[in-house]
Structure prediction request, 1078 residues.
Amino acid sequence: MEGWNEITRSPVIRPPKSPSTKPATVSCTVFDEQSDIVWVGDSSGFIASYTGDVLSPYTRFAAHRKPVKQLLSHVKGILSIDEDSIRFTNRRGLMIFQLSSKDHPSLARIGTMEFISPNELMVTAESSLLRLDINKSKITQVIPYKHEIVLIASSKRYIALGRTNGMVDIFDPKSNGIVKTFISNSGSLSDIDLQEHTLVTCGFSQRHGSSVLDPLVNVYDLRVLKPLSPIAFPAGASFVRLHPKLASVAFIASKTGQLQVVDMFNPTDVSLYQIDAGPMISKFELSSTGDFLAIVDAYSLLHLWSHNPEHSSMSSKAPLEYATMPEPTPSKVTIDEDFPLNTIGLPYYKETLLSAWPTQTIFRSAGTIPKPIDSSILQSAQIIDGIAVAPYDSEKYGPRNLAKKYVPIITNSEAGKFKSSKISNSPSKKNKTQENLFEFKESEESNSPPPAFRKLEILYSKFGVDDFDFDSYNQTHFTGLETHVDNSYTNSLLQLYRFVPEMFNFLLGNLAIENLDSNSIIRELGYLYDMMVKSFGHHLRPTNFQQTFSSLQDANNLGLIEKENGTISSTARDIGTRIKLFNKFLLDKITKDELKEVAEVSRSLQSYSIFGIEVESTIRSLYTGAMSTDTSVINTLDVFSPLANSFRPSIKNGSQPSILSYIESSLNTVEQRSMLNEMTGHYEAVEVSHTVKRLPPVLSINLHLKNDELKGIRNNSDWLKPTFYTAPSKGRFTVVENITNHVMANAFEEYSLVGFVCEVTGELDKDKHLVTFVQTYNDFLQKNEWYLFNDFLVTAIPHSEVFNLSYWWKTPVTLVYRNTRNLPRFDYAAWNRGLNDEILYRDHFAYGTREGKKIEYELLTREEAPKPGTLIAIDAEFVTLEEEQFEIKSNGLRSMLKPRKQTLARVSVLRGDDGPKMGVPFIDDYVIVEEGIHDYLTSFSGIEPGDLDPKTSDKALVSRETVYRKLWLLLNLGCVFVGHGLTNDFRTINLSVPQRQVRDTAVFFYKGQRILSLRFLAYVLLEKRVQTGNHDSIEDAHTALLLYKEYLTIKESGDLDYVLDEIYKEGQLLKFKPPEDD
Prediction:
């Protein structure tokens, strides 16, 4: 390392404004690892930065009130500490976050700090070590530590803690324990450094009662935790640094400026230099590239040294931001004493100058799109003299003639919804954002729905949907449902029935039956609820259920299909009406699906006994008195107001009508209408009465409320009831709120509210959406608690807010009550009773599959039946149905509105346990895709055009339902899935696999820098070239299996960290691709 010399020196401390003020001194320095910057902190709390090899001033700002003790460079900016605070600032001087001992008492008497990982710090404080997560800007762990620390250094495996008594503790951040203690010096330490597995220290020794600089630099090998031969430095070592790329090269400097560069493996290779630094050196730093030295002397002059300044750099050369300096417009007219201004002529203006326009002028554009009129206004409007006149709703729109508070558009899409942007927010801002997400009370400044009730949108950054922070919307263990799917309005009702044990157990129990029907709602809903349980608080995308639902012609005829782009299949655009139609359709379709299954397996019908309402209908002619009676079963009860049902409830003095009178009147209805008499061929007046004869354990109610009725309900704080009692009396059901004696208790059945779906209205029609309130048991609190489900937002909510219907924007539409007698519990293993798993041991090809199909797998036998812990390797391939949708903004930036829509095309599953058949596939299914395929992604999926069409394909084609049941069985039988990059595969397939059943090699060989491809890992670890042509899922699954086996071998040997470091080093040389890819 010859050729080092000084290239520039520059003062870095400003002189004091007053001669009586003591000048500041340099307290710390550091090189920036991203840009060519040298950072300097001083004793007055200021931080300054200097760029390039000429040390040009870049930024300067006040960071602390006390002297800056240490600086660290981060990819986002600069970290600094003083005695009791930590501050994170970007390179322009703007604060990202700051933590102080006032808010965090553990930060008292901060000593030093060092990185454990790219986004985690170890901070030394009084009697403790603190782990600080930079992304979350909070202290994640406090580790007791009784010694005072003066110096700290870290590598990828260990942290070296330099104590005041000259000892060095080797700390393992994984186990939070001291693995070794070295006695470095008999006095205090002056400097330490750690690179890879080499630790160097220097300091003072006690001689004749005084401290003198030790002439030796101590060296330690942390692989074996033993000292090596020290390095002699007769001048007395005050500073020592290891070269970041050549760990055997050490830079040693004395206080008086003597510099020695030595190779520890070759002690004869020594270069000596003398730094012209005045009386003494105060600071000594080496850049992360190893090409520059920064030395500060006693006069606060910064000396910059380099051994090859023209062909070296301080950092990775990231560009710096500078303020735009507009160029001054040159004057076209020269005005001086010889050229007066009044000689310049002005043109004649025929129109009024803009500066003279009146202030009340209104600008209108012929191309401006008018604001759409709310449908509720049009519905309530009356035509008077050809003009539609509607009453003004002050509850919805606020008082008249008052300016509304400006709400910026960006509030709906602010940063912080992305994981990658969390670091840019201060902790107070992040906490406030999260609190605002779950705020369920109206603001005094606005009458719009609170944040917890507003319509949610999934936003996409450049990292895709994985970057959206779904976790910040759900702090419970219940699963939220995503919105970017067809028919997302149904999420509310799906969540409601998920918490009805009778419905849940029935649907999961049906999964034991092998049902491969392509349009079975009962099967898809069972799969969905099983996955929601296994997701345990994570979000879920119900694509399989919605794909089956969208394919139903009956649903399309009823206008229930709503595409993701917002198009609806009928004129029934009101979302409240649509969810009530869907409720009726869903329960009727479940009954029809069960009838098919009952005919095949010869068992009794269960759905009628759960939610079937037995109704007796009587038709009586008003002229002849002739009567006819018929009995039928309906699955939902349509509830209208008592007046609509010609019912007069008995109301106590001073009380107001509640939902009970609505329910009672709808259990017994009478209406008059005209009906065709088939015998006479004429219409005649008849009276039609409907009387409920039997109420089911689960009572599903569709509420039909008019606007004038809603106003009365909102003025009644006790309209919605959590329970009611009912019993037949004189041929009809009576509904009461309370029972007064034991005789009534035996006769009456009690019904309790499980939950209900609410329509939330905004000022615009597009803001209308549905939310769900559900009461379920909280295991932690050991009591029933109410929860709000707003798509993927889930939060607990007080009982008072659930039953508060006074808000103008809140309208109940569908309710579910259940009989409290013999309440069943949730049976999460209902699918395991009489489970039919035959599909794993036989083929079930789709209709029309050709006889000459290729078979590349060997079916499982009963002797190989999967059991908990059985290892299987999986890989899936997909095709694209729709491309991504982007929005091009006015500034030219492109933002993603919707990611590409993909569907499953091929799945291969291999045996993974050791044995003669390890790696032999037992599933290799190509999936029929009936929708239009936009892109086969052949180079990635290996799927060729025609492979998924029964008319042209020579593959083993199966339906989506068939392959999904196979994977669902393997999951529930306890198999362990091995693969590479399984997260996206499971998301698209719609599988929620618990982490204990996943072995993802993309995660196992991840070091926090970049995810390594299967092809590169196979080349480096297995010396195998894969994916040389089109991808083959069998080959990919087998490669992932071999990588997992190799991972287990490496982990058992204890060399995993070392191997990962070597893989990434080789990856940087090969650009993370096998050589032939270039």
Observations:
- The chain has 21 helices and 52 strands.
- Confidence is low (pLDDT under 50) at residues 410-416.
